[in-house]
Amino acid sequence: MSANGTEAGIVTCAGQTLCPGHATGVLLVLSEPLSFWGGTDRRTGLIIDAHHPEHGTSVAGRVLLMDASRGSSSSSSVLAEQIRAGVGPAAILLTARDAIVSLGALAAAELYGTHVPVVLLDAHEAIRLRCCDGTTATVSDGVDGRAGVVLSERNRPGSRAGQGAS
Prior knowledge:
Blueprint: E1 6-7, E2 10-19, E3 22-29, H1 36-39, E4 63-66, H2 75-85, E5 91-94, H3 99-112, E6 118-120, H4 123-130, E7 136-141, E8 146-152
Parallel strand pairs: 3-4, 4-5, 5-6
Antiparallel strand pairs: 1-2, 2-6, 2-8, 3-7, 7-8
Helix pairs in contact: 2-3
């Protein structure tokens, strides 16, 4: 493995597990914090905040990368309900601890048996992922509270891996 965490077309990052789980989805890098209460449609998972840069984008089944959430403590109940309904994120990657997001994921796990991993990344790891929007990401909790994020090179925007010769 190289010093930048790549091996055979794979990018890997490590973080701290805030909520356990395992998920795979397409990475969605949010350029601003998001409120699940009023910022997303609880029935569809679409970002409905008209002022959010990713307005109109669906969080359903995606691996979200954002610094933290924004807004009301009611976001935890909206997130839990989106997870229950199958329109919530597959996993959430944060750069700051966020009790509201963690509570929503923990409530969904406890009430509905659906586990959405929430992982705290340090700033360096988050910077490495920000250029990988649209890449398939797998998030897993590990031993001792550590979590792993693996991005497949063949699905990275601009990657030639997995493409036929021109």
